[in-house]
Amino acid sequence: MFSEQAYLQAYPDVAKGVNDGVFSSGLQHYTQYGQFEQKRIGFFFGSSGNDTVTGIGEGNKLLAGVAFDALSNGSTVAGVGEVDTLIGTARADLFVLGHPSLASLTSTSQKFYVGGGNTDYAQIQNFKRWEDVILLEGSPQDYNLQVVNGSTNISTASGDLVGIVEGVAPFLPLRLFSSNSLNSISTIANLNIPLDATGSFSVII
């Protein structure tokens, strides 16, 4: 579902507009304006249970199966016990399976879906290679990719399954980028996501 809290936290100007009565909510701004603005994205999160999450609107989107509270509060067990389905949209999507410190959203870093072995993970559908991005916390050495029945399993180095990307084989290995190099990655920069990331993270593109 659309995350009002994340949208207003990421865009203080919109939050001010809501506080001043210009907009009734962040969703109203996103529906009327934000989805059409190049520098805005939509934030779509799940809950503490099993979810199917996709985005609405014309712009780029961030999709996560966990609840935004788990991210913003720095929960160390985000996604444990959950099987979430994340469905990509026609535009560029950022699938979040973990994250470094994101100044706009949270000051902590964490991995998702770690703790339940193969019983908790995110199932990613409609992943568009070279356009969409999968975000993971930590370095590439923390993860393994394995092709299983035509899909790509993403697991921690210890074998804990965190994601399944339907129909995509790992033609290139995971690559690690620091926050200093973030703007040099065109596929991420084009998402216009206010990450302000610090700490190590990995992406699959």
From TrEMBL:
Keywords: Plasmid. InterPro entries: Serralysin-like_metalloprot_C. SUPFAM superfamilies: beta-Roll (SSF51120). This is Ca2+-binding protein, RTX toxin-related.
